[in-house]
Write a structure and sequence with these properties.
This protein is of the alpha/beta class and about 325 residues long. The chain is built from 12 helices and 14 strands. The chain is globular and about 55 Å long.
Length: about 325
């Protein structure tokens, strides 16, 4: 019996894909692969030593390919090339910004390796937005637009909390990219409004007393229930999953890029004025929720991914041949 769209030249079983890369996107990518009927398993390796251990233990032999969320990571790319495992790189934002510098010829030997990993050694590329796909095309990389949509965008609208509160996100190594100092200034401007920060524990930051650092959380459902506004001010962005999740639940959004049913703000003054307006509203953002539900479908993205995998791996010889032992024969 055929194994579906990714039989990978072997009628005995379908393709088996390891989902690797940026930890907080792995389950999102895996959900899309599952909905595309592509067998996959999350492999969460957060350091070079964990990658080395995974290789030494031979666990890579269980997989025919890797779907890597975050474009071109040199240790993983080089290791998977040596193991002869084909890779699909799924680009999500900042990775494109960094690679654009590399594709201009910079980086010396490391840059040369990155260009090899990204182009002749890659099986395929996916981009989280048309904007990212266009930027990659400028670097000579054709990428299929496959949005990494979380299941949480299928959530229903919730009433706003009795106490208006603001949610923001950044991680400790990207505080400046996410304008953390500006968010702290805004929190000081609204001392009666709680500001909840996800992704950072606040170590080393001077914050007003109305700021609560929640660190890394596996699920934000409770945080959305506690907040009425999501504040996202960034230098470069694809399309934030948290923006979509917040809108789906009827929350308001202050965003540094234009997006339907959000308030755009590019600096402190614009963000302050947007927050003033939104903090007075007591009804959910129903228009924003309807927009997300009508324009963003996990199943549509899964079908796009399914068709891309057909092109990348084929059904009759264009992909790597899998032996009876599960190892590649190229």
């Amino acid at each position: 019996m055929s194994g579906g769209p990714c039989d990978n030249s072997n009628p005995s079983r379908p393709l088996r894909v390891a989902v690797m890369g940026t930890w907080n996107w792995l389950e999102v990518a895996a959900e899309l692969l599952r909905r595309a009927d592509i067998g996959c398993e999350v492999v969460d390796l957060r350091s070079r030593s964990e990658l080395a251990r995974w290789i030494a233990q031979g666990k890579w032999r269980r997989f025919d390919a890797v779907h890597h969320v975050w474009g071109v990571r040199r240790p993983a790319g080089l290791a998977l090339r040596l193991l002869r495992k084909p890779v699909v790189w799924h680009w999500i934002g900042t990775d494109v910004t960094r690679y654009r510098e590399v594709c201009r010829g910079g980086g010396g030997v490391r840059g040369w390796l990155d260009r090899k990993i990204a182009r002749p050694w890659a099986r395929g590329h996916a981009a989280d937005s048309p904007e990212l796909a266009s930027e990659l095309a400028d670097c000579g990389i054709p990428a299929e637009v496959v949005r990494l949509l979380p299941k949480a965008i299928e959530a229903s609208v919730e009433p706003l909390p009795p106490q208006p509160a603001v949610l923001s996100y950044w991680n400790p190594v990207s505080r400046n990219f996410y304008h953390a100092p500006l968010v702290m200034r805004l929190a000081a401007e609204f001392p009666q409004t709680p500001f909840l920060i996800v992704g950072d524990d606040g170590a080393g930051l001077s914050a007003p007393p109305n700021v609560e650092f929640l660190g890394r959380l596996p699920d934000l459902a409770d945080v959305y229930s506690r907040t009425s506004i999501y504040l996202r001010l960034v230098e470069h962005d694809s399309l934030s999953a948290i923006v979509l999740e917040a809108l789906a639940r009827g929350r308001y959004v202050v965003y540094s890029k234009p997006f339907p049913f959000t308030e755009q703000a590019k600096d402190f003054s614009q963000a302050r004025e947007a927050l003033k307006r939104l903090l007075e509203i007591r009804r959910p953002n129903d228009d924003g929720s309807r927009h997300v539900k009508s324009c963003y479908s996990l199943q549509e993205q899964a079908e796009t991914l399914r068709q891309a995998y057909r092109r990348w791996f084929g059904e009759g010889g264009s992909g790597p041949v899998v032996s009876a032992r599960g190892a590649e024969v190229l």
